[in-house]
Amino acid sequence: MVGHVVGLGDRHGKNILFDPTTGDCVQVDFSCLFDKELQLEKPELVPFRLTQNMIDGLGITEYEGILLRICEITLSVLRTHRETLMSVLETFIHDPLVEWTKSRKSSGARVKNPHAQRAISNIQARLQWVVVALE
After folding, report:
1. Residue 107: which residues within 8 A CB-CB, separation 6 or more?
2. What DSSP string describes 53-108?
3. Residue 16's beta-bridge partner residues?
4. d(Cα 75, Cα 125) in Å, to the nearest integer?
5. Higher per-residue pLDDT: 27 or 103
6. How far apart are CA 18 and CA 26, in angstroms?
7. What are phi and psi of 101, to 5 degrees?
8. pLDDT tens by residue, 70-121
9. Contact at 8 Å (CB) between 124 and 87?
10. pTM value?
11. Count of helices and strands (H, E) across the chain
12. What distance in Å separates the CA atoms of residue 127 and residue 77, rounded to the nearest whole number?
């Protein structure tokens, strides 16, 4: 859920690691963060693929049991701490290592990338349970 809210794309079996003893989940490969997968030559239009193998692994309640409840709890926690999350994420707009800012020599000021602004707006919308339209 956190990955979906922050626009983490390119999610597949090799980018989500599971610890079989504890059930912990670790996301790896953050190259498609902030909806960057929508800007690829062949954009990813599906935010998450819940495959039959994943559903089978969830047991008898499938996706309507513990997965649904955990997703609801996670979104609730994210919404409760929305301001903290947004203050952390908004720093990425100004991070020189993220390709979202460009310097203009004429003014000397840094110009914000519209893709970054859109990504932040999308995150804010997702935190309010608004379905974000793909572009």
Report:
1. none
2. HHHHHT-TTGGGTHHHHHHHHHHHHHHHTHHHHHHHHHHHHH-TTSTTEEE-TTT-
3. 27
4. 12
5. 27
6. 6
7. -120, 145
8. 989 999 999 999 999 988 888 877 776 666 544 444 444 554 567 777 888 8
9. no
10. 0.69
11. 5, 4
12. 10
